[in-house]
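Issue 218. Parser rejects a valid record. Input:
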Amino acid sequence: MLFELNEEKKLIRDTAREFAQETLSKYAKQIDREERIPQEVIKKLAELGFWGITVPEEFGGAGLDAFSLILVLEEISRVCASTSVTMSVHNSLVCNALVKYGTAEQKKKYLPKLAGGEIIGAYALTEPDSGSDAASLITKAVKKGNQYILNGTKIFITSAPIAGVSIVFVRTNPDKSLRGKGISAFLVEPSFKGFKLGVKEEKMGVKGAIAGEIVLEDCAVPAENLLGEENKGFNLAMELLNSGRIGIAAQSVGIAQACLDAAMKYSQERKQFGKALSEFQAIQWKIADMATEINAARLSTYHAALLKDKKLPHIKEACMAKLFASAVCNKAAKESVQIHGGMGYTKDFAVERFFRDAKVTEIYEGTSEIQRIVINKELFGKNWISSRQ
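Output the parser choked on:
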């Protein structure tokens, strides 16, 4: 499939690229070092409309599609993965959830603030004892009058310490044997009684994408903050993660491209044995393989996004894109550091940060192992084997 960007898409990509290369690049090391995204960066992203890329214009968003979102995420990721994953969670998981499942009142209340960057959104699914097996979560909610009382702990939640609203998944049916069929989603604000922030995570990479615990102790949430239908939140969670996986695939492509760019630049500048590294076949082959794999990962990611925009089945394709792109990303980061040699192991060169940032792409939004499980279910569920015999 040939992906030819029209003028609108080129403008979106180029706007993101210009901001990333000319403005965000000045903050990237600071974001990693200080483990936070400065307000001036958040404000500039808001001015560009990047906090509400797929939010309808009536709610203050850009009203664009999933393909536009991944173009932006790829360009931002080439410079700062911390910023891109914060944007991905905010757009793919939080804004998308409200656009599709929110009531008119919920959209009116939250979407303008989210789209304008006035508040940042978080997605709270993971718990200490339920990571990949999300259906086994134990955080619970009991309805009392016009409120739900929530109790439990969420961990590894991107943007939790700074979020103005979090989508929190809880068990509303106490029968654990129901697993996903007894889970609901709620829009929870940090000002709600019983909402507390726990430990801030100390991470290897994407340090600027601040993450931490959410502790709910008799947290009172208004009944009108139920997102979607009661006991049907697990399907909502999985659908949103499917969209998020395309965003992480785009992030992976962006990081990988940054690694390739850095490797090509350094290999032409660095001389050993009387010639540039780029003249050695061993280096040439590494770079050729990196470029080939990144191109394939990009096309896979674009394909998944286009299927989503056309409202066609894309679960398998989203998982494939995330699985492959994250692997390509990690390989590119490893090879780029290797090409840089000792220099690549120092903080003087960005590839050291890219290497640390790359690893999590194989973990969040579903590990690579989970992606393989979902892909297999999609294949066998559609009689893939029998149709090809």
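Fixed in the parser; the record now loads. The chain has three domains: 7-120, 122-234, 240-388.
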